[in-house]
Fold Helix-turn-helix transcriptional regulator.
Amino acid sequence: MDSPDKNNEFYLQGLIAMMEHLSDPWGIKDLESRHIYMNKAAYLYTNTPLSFDIAGKRDDEFPADWADCADDFIEHDKMTEMSRDRVAVIETHYWYGKDSLTPFISEKLPIYNDKKQVFGVMWNAKPLNTLTPLKYINQQKPSVLTTEVNSTIFTQSELDVIFLMLQRLSVKEIAKIYNISTKTIENRIYNIYQKSDVHTLQQFEEFCKYARLDSYIPDRLIAKGIQFI
């Protein structure tokens, strides 16, 4: 009769063979939150040197900036193990070694053996998509949220307002968020329209679509770390 460890190893090898060919980041950890395997996409996502041997390492032992969130990653592992079900979080960090914060959805799923025992956790990560009202109305696919913007015609304050305008928030709602007067917001929107050479919100939404501003999110609105959802 095969030993439990041998049985578990059989399941792990099957998962690894599958993950090896996936383009999204995937990895496997044991119940002590020690890494067992990461595919190449996961190495790139975590900005981990390919020469670094991850086997048996915990998150705080990685030579990466995100290691400062190790306690949250371990809590994610434990929640998955205890719930015996999929658990998703939003991970916001400098993924892929980029200079800007980027939110990703990370899912962790329990790994079962033939005895229906959980003996590990597998994880993956995908960019957090945004579906603005404009995209929904036009039946467009969601795009990846980014804190980077190519446009140089708007000030940072105007970019902050643009993000909330695209969420169809009113002038009063935007003013409340930033704790400033509605008159100030109205002036910013006027300047935004002038710079965009538009006169209505609908025209401006079209402008943002082609200027690729409809996927922008101000970095002050997202914080580094883990958000359980």
Notes: The chain is about 40% helix and 20% strand. The longest strand covers residues 102-112.
